[in-house]
Design goal:
It contains 5 helices and 5 strands. By secondary structure, it is α+β, with helices and mostly antiparallel strands. The protein has a single domain (45-191), classed as Butyryl-CoA Dehydrogenase, subunit A, domain 3 (Up-down Bundle), CATH 1.20.140. Strands 4-3-2-1-5 form a 5-stranded antiparallel beta sheet. A hairpin with a 4-residue loop joins strand 2 and strand 3 (77-79). Helix 2 (27-58) packs antiparallel against helix 5 (169-191) and helix 4 runs antiparallel to helix 5 (169-191). It comes from Ovis ammon polii. This is Epithelial membrane protein 1. The chain crosses the membrane at residues 36-63, 97-118, 130-150, 170-191. InterPro entries: EMP_1 (IPR003932), PMP-22/EMP/MP20-like (IPR050579), PMP22/EMP/MP20/Claudin (IPR004031), PMP22_EMP_MP20 (IPR004032). Keywords: Glycoprotein, Membrane, Transmembrane, Transmembrane helix.
Length: 194
């Protein structure tokens, strides 16, 4: 049996096999790496959802006028000069319900994020992400109810005060958050078993 020299072209296959086995990652480490990448991407989407929920709830650009530089939000009516408290439907129960559900969605989304981080390091494998997934699905329901009420009562009606108008970025962000919170919530429930 000859010695294996670096760069020796006459190295036999069976002599090379032990060297390659030590260089290749094991299937379990590959699975762990894929799981870490998946968890990191889910975490980033969850943080993006929280940020977009804050922006969509706070910003007053749910409906934008096509004729003038004005917009309406959940809290105020805005023009170029600034925002005022002159919403024509400010006292209606439907608007208060939308405001409440959007605030609840932010609260549940933040709670779900904190629970996710807590469960990542403390819970055992089988129960790991169930609570964070369930909490995020409650957030999803709150977003759905709030956005649906706003759509039904104000987005496509004359109550918003504009003859010609279109949906603003806050309204669109709300529906994007609706999709993201559902997808991430379901992924948390699926990942609890892995």
């Amino acid at each position: 049996m000859s010695l294996i020299k670096f760069g020796n072209p006459r190295v036999q296959k069976d002599q090379m096999t032990p060297l390659l086995k030590h260089q290749l990652p094991s299937p379990s480490s590959q699975r762990k790496a894929k799981m870490l990448v998946l968890l990191a991407s889910i975490f980033v989407v969850h943080i993006a959802t929280v940020i977009m929920l804050f922006v969509s709830t706070i910003a007053n650009v749910w409906v934008v006028s096509d004729l003038r530089a004005e917009s309406v939000g959940l809290w105020k009516n805005c023009t170029i000069g600034g925002c005022g408290d002159n919403l024509s439907y400010a006292g209606e129960d439907a608007l208060k319900a939308v405001q409440a559900f959007m605030i609840l969605s932010i609260i549940f989304s933040v709670i779900s994020l904190v629970v996710f981080v807590f469960q990542l390091f403390t819970m055992e494998k089988g129960n790991r992400f169930f609570l964070s997934g369930a909490t995020l699905l409650v957030c999803w329901l709150c977003v759905m109810v709030g956005a649906s009420i706003y759509t039904h009562h104000y987005a496509n009606s004359s109550k918003n005060g504009y003859e010609k108008s279109h949906h603003g970025y806050s309204f669109i962000l709300t529906w994007i958050c609706f999709c993201f919170s559902f997808i991430v919530g379901i992924l948390y429930l699926v990942l609890r078993k892995k």
